Amino acid sequence: MSPKMHLFLHHVFRYLLQGDLEQDAVTFARAYEKYVYFGHALEILLHTVLEEEAGQDLKEAAILPFVIRFLDQFRHALDVIVSCARKTEVALWDHLFSVVGKPKDLFEICLEEGRLHTATSYLIILQTMQPLAVAGKDTMRLLHKALDENNYELCKELVRFLSSIDNTGNTLHEALQMIKTRIETNDPMSPNAHDSQMDKVVQNMHNL
Fold this sequence. Notes:
mainly alpha
């Protein structure tokens, strides 16, 4: 799909949804789902409708609920929603999440499905909407998952995130101690290549 081609897709999607032709919109979209720009086209659709309808009552004329139901037909939905939210004014979040569901619930779905990078994006949203203690706990849970998958780059990203939101440093210290304990538990006598890599990551984390 060329860049020019993807720019018209959200217009077609919206036209069909406004005409109460949701199934036709899904069928049409399936033909383009394999292309790299498809997710971006969905995001443009959501962002455009959200900005136009924000502040209005979700009346019969509103199509945001139909857009969300349409998005839910595709694997891109959770990524599209969080990407749109992060690029949208915080003032519009209440309107968005009143339709798509609570961001904490979407975060939990990402955790359950193993979509850790998407879950990390939801953490950024949650960090502005809930107390630090709760955000810290959610980050630690995600860090556990990342360690289980040996995703050391994500571990480093999460520790950097903790360092930016935790002025006390307590949760950050807890995270580093947990990582160190996991390394020692995996192979206390002779670290393998993964452990050596993790040692390096932990050292880099201390230098953040």
